[in-house]
Amino acid sequence: MAKQTKAVRVGNLQVGGGAPISIQSMTTTDTRDVAATVAQIESLAGRGCEIVRVAVPDEAAARALEQIKSQISLPLVADIHFDYRLALLAIASGVDKVRINPGNIGSFERVKKVVDALKDRGIPLRIGVNSGSIDKRIRDRFGGPTPLAMVESALSHIALVERCGYDQIVVSLKSSSVRDTVAAYRAMAARVDYPLHLGVTEVGTVFNASIKSAVGIGALLLDDIGDTLRVSVTGDPLNEIDIAKGILRATERRQFGLNVVACPTCGRCNVDLARLVERVERELATVDKPLTLAVMGCAVNGPGEAREADIGMAGGVDEMLLFVKGKVVKKVPIEQAFDQLKQLVDGWGEV
Ligand code: SF4
């Protein structure tokens, strides 16, 4: 049974405390360019992003936050490094969460000012430790940026916030090493009950990012660790949402649209199954019904899987046997298979 984390509110969304695991992303636009940033946030929201973060590198970016916030519906997170004044500006402009590491912003008075401002607005902060930015003293103590060094670093930031009497905290511990990331989150989950924001960082473009994130984030989700996640991808952030949904679906932590089961085909297959499956995945990608479709290549092993699905197909010679809820309903020529399947999906649940 998963350990219940504290519930934290990020805008209109709950993170932790058993809430559905939310999907986050980060804009790649210049935050000072309000129109471009809002447009990208709207695209991300349309794709399924639930929390969005923007970089706040300077005062002009901090001052753009209010306008951005007024034009979007997603909870907005300000990503700030080192400068407590930017954090204060961001909080005053109405953001829903701030990502900043309290240990990096100088004196305790400064930390207290930021935490007091968060407290006044009732908004949380994310303590986001990356293996590349661990305090030198901690790195030296642990002999490098090890998973336990990341955990120690996060605990020291958490202690500062707790000293200011605040507990609306989300924690992340990202490394470009999948193994270290998983080890760090596992160790952290055993020590605190703050919600955890999962991610593997600096993983590259879509192919590598998908694999590393699926392995790292997936391993943690299968351990019932994690309350929100961001898949990092170099390039278009829309890809991050697709991969995140895929990981949540594969780990059975959330359901998004259709669950397509398809066999890899082998020498027993006598239909062009790859083309059919590719079309099903592409053309039915936006259907949001909790259905399992099985598209199988032959009559030897196919019918078993096809019967288990809501709608199933098993290949014959240039034709497909169609199953609905475990029962054979008809045989259709392979050229008509997609249309038949689509018709059934479209009509599913409608009287
Ligand atoms: Fe081969 Fe049939 Fe299995 Fe597909 S379902 S992999 S075609 S045996």
Distinct small molecules bound, one entry per kind: iron/sulfur cluster
Number of helices: 12
Oligomer: single chain
Helix content: 40-55%
Strand content: 15-25%
Structural category is alpha/beta
Q: Quick one: biggest sheet?
A: 8 strands, parallel
Order of helices and strands: EEEHEHEHEHEHHEHEHEHEHEHEEEH
Tell me how many strands there are.
Answer: 15
Major beta sheet, strand line-up = 8-7-6-5-4-3-10-9
Shape: elongated
Unreliable residue stretches? none
Rg (C-alpha, Å): 23 Å
Q: Write down the overall mean pLDDT.
A: 94
Distance between the first and last residues' Cα:
39 Å
Summarize the model shown.
With 351 residues, the protein is α/β, with parallel strands linked by helices. The protein has helices at residues 34-47, 59-70, 84-92, 108-121, 136-142, 147-163, 178-191, 206-222, 238-250, 273-283, 302-308, 334-347; strands spanning 8-10, 13-15, 22-26, 51-55, 76-79, 97-99, 125-130, 169-174, 197-198, 228-230, 259-262, 292-296, 311-315, 319-324, 327-333. Helix 2 packs parallel to helix 3 (84-92), helix 6 packs across helix 7 and helix 7 packs parallel to helix 8 (206-222).
